[in-house]
Specification:
alpha/beta, 5-stranded parallel sheet, 24 helices, 65% helix
């Protein structure tokens, strides 16, 4: 009869496990054995869509962030728009050429972290890793929130559900798709990227045509008005420039993912980098021209690119098509982080600065632990800032340009060491990139310090501190676990060695009987312990115990303050002090396994607490004896 019950419980458990596996396979697919089934190398046209979605989609919020500062400052400063934009275009060209050199010199991927580790040492590499970690999380958060803003601009009634939409897209779309693998995610991301680029370029062409053939001025008079330059105006221009630098996020993604390209990998990666930056520059200039032509002003409920589309083509079919593809590209732009961060975390984990499980592939051969970590961190950020684009943008860019600076500095050292063909020109390009991006880090830190940059300036050192503590733990653990020279395994126990088994009980029950059977098998000396919170109950427990097991006595510990855990810990400590140093102590904890999850809420968790506290005791073994309820 007992065997039948066990088989019934086993069948029920296997059925639940099979249901779980079916749901998991439905969501993320079947496990893969062959890496090629997951890791398909990408042609340039497909890689452009996958790796460039973050950079290209940033045009939907980058120009707006310039206007937000210049239009709402209380000064007549809109006419200084180009003073912030043109330096961004020049900077884009410099960083593009610099990152092409990163792809050439670092075909194994890893971007700034790998370059810094190989050329600059541990500390700069950890700074780059922490900066990239910050940047990728913010990339997902900003991309999702701006995608939701594009949707609510077209359909205002969805505005009150912004945060809920953000969370749904994060977990139900991005996380699941990326857990399926790169080849699967590529199917979802290619079409929206090209639809967005094509739709935006067509919108720019229509807008420019209307500007030069219409009756209105090519650029609105209000868009060129500006008051005389002074230090306050100069600071506003710098802040607008710092905000606009968010248009350059994602440039490092291609250099991080060189191994995913078809052969020759680094050449295809370089060509894709140039194409991406060229398209980005054209779109930035086109959108900025139309913003100034229509003199579009920031609106907290409607994005500027939505206003631009409405003024250019009206609120018709094309407008809604454009808003939908803008939403999709912004949602999918977050995929750049999913392609970049999990492999980066795996590299850092293999170096010992992150938990080792982040370096392991899952059933679908993706870095599933890194994907889940990225999603959880992003969800936390969205909840803290309530999905507010303005607050998230304030945190953005500093991590990006910090990693840019470190990568370019590392490349200078690389070319100076190797002195390959054209090394002088490459040193100049990377040194110029490092110098300029370093200045931009300072500009962003100063101009955006009170708008959120201080959080990043605290968070990055905190991440670096965690990296070093994790490394220290693994190093010390390795020393502890390593076999000493000449040390061999010994399976012969000493004849005087004993195993003391301590069995805490609150009342003699069937679960205690099962635990006692096991104790007799493994123990040389068994000690039953009852913590008495009142004398009447203690006498009753002792009487019942002697009837059930007269051979083994029971130790009763009085607890006048009705504490259970601490008296038991003190008793274990006393036994440990009295025993031989070579002896073992095993604490058996009977634990009831309920059939329903919510049944656990009806029972105290003394066993769990006791197990958690005892596991830190030296030379104490903790064993849980489960007793499964039938109903």
């Amino acid at each position: 009869m007992e065997n039948c019950i066990i088989l019934e419980e086993l069948n029920l458990l296997m059925g639940e496990l099979e249901l779980f596996n079916r749901i998991k396979r439905l969501l993320i697919g079947r496990p893969l054995k062959n890496e090629e089934a997951f890791y398909q190398r990408l042609p340039k046209w497909k890689a452009l869509a996958i790796f460039s979605s973050d950079a290209l989609s940033s045009v939907s919020y980058g120009p707006e962030q310039i206007a937000v500062v210049l239009a709402l400052s209380g000064f007549i400063t809109y006419g200084y728009y180009l003073y912030s934009l043109i330096p961004i275009i020049i900077l884009l060209a410099i960083v593009t050429v610099s990152y092409a050199q990163v792809a050439r010199a670092n075909p194994g991927g890893g971007g700034s972290y790998s370059v810094a580790r190989e050329n600059l040492g541990e500390k700069p590499a950890l700074v780059a890793g922490a900066a990239l970690f910050t940047d990728y999380i913010l990339t997902v958060a900003v991309s999702i929130t701006t995608g939701t803003a594009a949707l609510t601009s077209a359909f205002p009634f969805l505005g009150e559900y912004k945060l809920l939409l953000d969370i749904i897209v994060l977990f139900c779309v991005l996380t699941i798709i990326n857990l399926r693998g790169v080849s699967e995610s590529a199917k979802f991301f290619v079409l929206p990227t090209y639809l967005f680029v094509g739709g935006l370029l067509l919108l720019i062409v229509i807008g420019i045509f209307q500007a030069f053939t219409g009756t209105e001025p090519v650029i609105a008079e209000a868009s060129v008005q500006k008051q005389p330059m002074d230090m306050m105006i100069f600071f506003l221009i710098l802040r607008a420039f710092a905000n606009g630098c968010s248009s350059m996020t994602g440039l490092e993604a291609i250099a991080n993912g060189v191994p995913m390209f078809k052969k020759p990998e680094y050449k295809n990666a370089i060509h894709t980098t140039y194409w991406m930056s060229g398209i980005l520059a054209i779109m930035l200039l086109g959108i900025s021209f139309l913003i100034m032509h229509y003199h579009i002003m920031p609106n907290p409920n409607v994005t500027m690119i939505s206003q631009l589309a409405e003024k250019t083509v009206g609120r018709g079919y094309y407008y809604y098509f454009f808003q939908i593809v803008t939403m999709l590209i912004l949602f999918l732009a977050a995929n750049t982080a999913y392609n970049g961060l999990p492999p980066l975390l795996s590299i850092i984990a293999k170096d010992g600065y992150l938990p080792r499980y982040l370096g392991q592939r899952g059933e679908r051969l993706s870095f599933s632990n890194g994907i889940i970590l990225l999603s959880m961190a992003t969800a936390l950020l969205l909840i803290i800032f309530d999905g507010d684009v303005e607050h998230l943008i304030s945190l953005y860019a500093i991590g990006v340009f910090l990693s840019f600076t470190i990568a370019q500095s590392g490349m200078v050292v690389h070319w100076l060491r190797n002195k390959s063909k054209y090394w002088q020109g490459r040193v100049f390009v990377n040194a110029l990139g490092a110098f300029i991006t370093g200045i931009i880090v300072v500009i962003i830190a100063v101009t955006k310090f009170f708008y959120g940059a201080w959080i990043i300036l605290i968070f990055i050192p905190s991440v670096i501190y965690c990296f070093r503590k994790i490394k220290k733990h693994y190093t010390e653990m390795g020393r502890e676990l390593a076999l000493k020279p000449g040390e061999k395994f010994s399976y012969i126990s000493s004849p005087i060695m004993k195993n003391y088994v301590i069995l805490p009980i609150s009342y003699p029950t069937r679960s205690v009987i099962e635990a006692m059977r096991y104790a007799r098998k493994i123990g040389d000396e068994i000690i039953a312990v009852h913590i008495a919170t009142d004398n009447e109950n203690a006498d009753y427990v002792k009487k019942v115990w002697h009837v059930q097991d007269p051979e083994i006595g029971i130790v009763t510990i009085q607890s006048p303050y009705r504490m259970v855990i601490q008296p038991l810990l003190d008793f274990v400590k006393q036994v440990a002090a009295d025993k031989n140093p070579e002896d073992y102590i095993t604490v058996l904890i009977p634990e009831i396994q309920t059939t329903k999850w919510w049944h656990k809420l009806l029972h105290n968790q003394t066993g769990l607490i006791l197990r958690t506290l005892l596991i830190f005791k030296e030379n104490v073994i903790v064993v849980t004896i489960p007793f499964r309820l039938k109903r």
